[in-house]
Amino acid sequence: MRYNDKELQALSRQPAEMAAELGMRGPKKGSVVKRRLVKLVVNFLFYFRTDEAEPIGALLLEHCRVIHEEPNSFSIIMSSCGGASFSTGMRSRR
Questions:
Q1: What is the DSSP string of 38-91?
Q2: Tell me: the pLDDT tens digits for 6-18?
Q3: CA dist 57 to 8, 68, 69, Å?
Q4: Is the dihedral of CA 46, 66, 92, 14 positive or negative?
Q5: Is the dihedral of CA 62, 59, 37, 83 positive or negative?
Q6: If you classify domain 5-92 with CATH, what class do you get?
Q7: Would 16 disulfide with which of 7, 39, 44, 90, CB 3.0-4.6 Å?
Q8: pTM (2 decimals)?
Q9: For residue range 50-72, what is the model confidence (pLDDT) as tens digits?
Q10: How many CA atoms lie within 13 A of 52 on its CB side?
Q11: Domain spans of the chain?
Q12: How far apart are the C-alpha atoms of 36 and 7, rounded to whole Å?
C-alpha cells in the first residue's frame, strides 16, 4: 500500500490511541538513543522531535514482531527491513 506525504501528515494529526516520550534507537547497529515523541494512530507509529509538530518518520506496524527485551524496553522487528529499537519507561501521554 502506498501513502503520500500529505496523507501521512494528516493522519499524524489525528487523536492518538497512545502516545509517549521514548528513547528511540534506529535499525543500524550502534545507533545513538534519541528522545522522541511517539504516537500510535491506527496501525502507524509516528515519531516526532520533542519540540516539533510534524513527524520525522512513521513505521507501518504490519508484518512485524514486538520483542520485550528488558524491564523497560522493547524492539519492533520489521520483516522486510531490519528493526527499530525503543526504550520505554518515560512519561506516557494518552
A1: EEEETTEEEEEETT-SS-SEEEE-SSEEEEEEETTEEEEEESSS-EEEEE--S-
A2: 999 999 999 999 8
A3: 9, 22, 23
A4: positive
A5: positive
A6: mainly beta
A7: 39
A8: 0.74
A9: 899 999 998 888 887 777 777 76
A10: 12
A11: 5-92
A12: 21
